[in-house]
Structure formats: C-alpha cells, structure tokens
Amino acid sequence: MDFLIENKWTILVSLEVLAWSSTFFLLYARYGLKSSFWFKVGTVLFAVTGVIPQVLMGIINFISTKKVDLFTLIIVLLIIYGFTIGKSHVKKLDTWAQAKFSNKVTTALNMGTENLSECPWAPTFTLHGH
Fold this sequence. Notes:
The protein is mainly α and 130 residues long. It has helices at 2-6, 8-32, 36-49, 51-65, 70-83, 85-111.
C-alpha cells in the first residue's frame, strides 16, 4: 500500500491516460471496426482503467491520510465531471467518431472496389489462391 500512496499522482495520471485511450479504442471498435466483441473489450478496458481504480485510489488515499487532501479532492472532481459535464463531452466525441468513421466507409464505397486499394486507411485482405 505504501507504493500506491508514494506514487499516487503518477498512477492517477497513467490511469487517466489509459481511460481516455480506452475511450478512443471503444469508439473505434464501435464505428471503425463495427465489432461488438472489440467494443465490449473497450468497455471493460475503460472500467478497469478509469472509474474503478480511480475510486479505489481515492479510498486508499483517504484511509491512509485520514483527511480529504488535494488528491482525494481531485478524484472526487473527476468522478463528478464524469457523471455531469463529462457525459456531454463523451456524446460529442461519440458523434465526431461516428461521423469520421462513417465518412471513410462511405468514401471507400463511393470509390468502388477497384479503387479501394488506393485508400491508405482501407484494410487489405489476401485471399488464398487469388
């Protein structure tokens, strides 16, 4: 537990970066890959890197210091943000991702299959025997 308390800020920042990375992956899986499996993986990654460990870090810090210090206050503010303003920010991000990935798919379909290989972001597939 001493390790967690001594490195709490580094752990918090790392968890926050991982949570946002998980959010972007989740949106990519949903709209880019259109995969329910990878979307579920992204959801689990978000829970494991975002809310759950941050709340646990806040609880551990509070138990250790027996007071509401700056770290605990930041955790509480992050949780409040997530349940209030953060929801609208994620909705905007969701709308952006949907439009971005839908636009790429539409563009590729409009180009026709013969030009699909010219798209740098298009997936490449190799069929055996062709």
